[in-house]
Amino acid sequence: MGRIITVISGKGGVGKSTFSANAAVFLSKLNKRILLVDADINLNNLDLIMGIQDQIIFNASDVVHKRCNAGKAIIKNVFDGLDFFPGSINPGDDPTEVVAGICELLKELKGDYDIILIDCPSGVDSTVRALAKISDASIVVTTPDLTAIRDANRAAILVYGEKTEDVRLVVNRVRPKLIEKGLAPDIDEIIDNTEVQLLGLIPEDIKIQIYSNKGILAHQVKKSRSAKAFENISQRITGQEVPLYKFW
Fold first, then answer.
1. Could you read off the pLDDT of 106-132 as tens digits, one per residue?
2. Could you tell me the residue ranges of all domains in the chain?
3. Which CATH number fits domain 3-237: 3.40.640.10, 3.20.20.70, 3.90.76.10, 3.40.50.300?
4. How many whole angstroms separate alpha carbon 48 and alpha carbon 228?
């Protein structure tokens, strides 16, 4: 039986979707069968980050309302071992009904994958709550900014409240020189304020920001420090005992 892992953030703009896309690819490179789900039903853009927007024909809303089956909506083998499910909604459809349908569908698909990785909407709304209820683990993504850290703590409290005990923290866009100069919170301070165990760190990487606009992910970018960070985090997600990747 596979695991369902929700990726949440609290604050928007911290790189949650970019993390989800890259983590999914590196998990598949570990010979894991992965389903990546874009569960931001209103503001979905994971297909753009993956560079597969032209392949989307059906979505979660179509599956829930039986306009097609899940097999037609899921994009197979975006990368080897990685499938993609567009969790968007069609105009006029009830969001609550679609989210409930997504949850039921993912529980059914759990046995077909090693990991179902869900990119949740930002914030702590009812969609995140519903997805947290069916998840086995959650990854909270933040940046070294006070507002993002506070919101990450609130998101963590939400998933703890839904009985998700396995919650881990990823700090994105880390700039060691700012931390050394006292211009950004240090990692221990971030861990203390979010009250979440650290899973991994990702360096600030302008290449990833540039290439993501072209649907190119970290594993395709030469000499990308963030690619090594995603690889390290993916290994740790699968339970491998590898040390934290330090890029300073």
1. 999 999 999 999 999 999 999 999 999
2. 3-237
3. 3.40.50.300
4. 22
Check if the beta carbon of residue 116 is closer than 8 Å to that of residue 237: no
Residue 214 has a pLDDT of 65
pLDDT of residue 37: 98
Q: Is the pTM of this model over 0.70?
A: yes
Torsion of CA 107, 199, 123, 119, to 10 degrees: -40
Name which of 69, 131, 70, 68 is nearest 96 in CA terms: 131
Tell me which H or E stretch contains 179: helix 176-180
CA distance 100 to 78: 26
Q: Is the dihedral of CA 140, 142, 144, 147 positive or negative?
A: negative
Separation between Cα atoms, residue 139 and residue 118, nearest integer Å: 10
pLDDT at 110: 96
